[in-house]
Amino acid sequence: MPLASCPPGPPLDTLQLMEPGIGTAPFNSAAWAFAMPLSGHRMLAELGAEAGAGACGARLRSRRGVDSTRWFPEVVRALGGLRVPGRLVAEGEICVLDAASRPDPQRLHERALHPGRRPGTSAVVLCLRDLLVWEGRDVRALPWLERRQLLHRLPLQGRRALQLQRTLRAEGRWLWQQAQALGRDCVHAYRCDAPYVAGPGIGWLRIPCAATAELAA
């Protein structure tokens, strides 16, 4: 579907998150992209919103539908500085990253106890994973790979509070082995031709890591 044929994007409060299905074993496939888990708080981020948006015309909504705009002001400021044409809604995870860019769930928990950033707490990053609305159009029906290419057009360079989730095309087994070695609990797999569909589906898989897991044939 061409971008120009996509319908107008729905209001933020009506959008529902996609959930991962459960994969049984790691695999390699050029039709899929793979990523390490982010271990953060899932969010919808809106920019260029209608009346009621937060500072800089941006706002955040949690997985449970709670307005989280004032909780993470550095992310809201970074979103507001993007200056993209039209309205945008992206999905990602709020994380605290250590010096090696690894998620730190404990420091994230400490930060998320109160709105804003208090002295002694860590800065957060919104790691963008997917795209639902672009230039005011509903792009959920586009393939994951096309949505990902649109995300790459965002001017994120130099914005510490925003980054794209890193993905690796095809090499799912290798990434799963790296996740095992690092003590991660899973890897994520995204089917490149899949639309964004609310709820669990086959376009996004969570592949558990376990000492007894076997590689797919």
TrEMBL record:
Q: What is this protein called?
A: Uncharacterized protein
State the organism's lineage: Bacteria, Pseudomonadati, Pseudomonadota, Betaproteobacteria, Burkholderiales
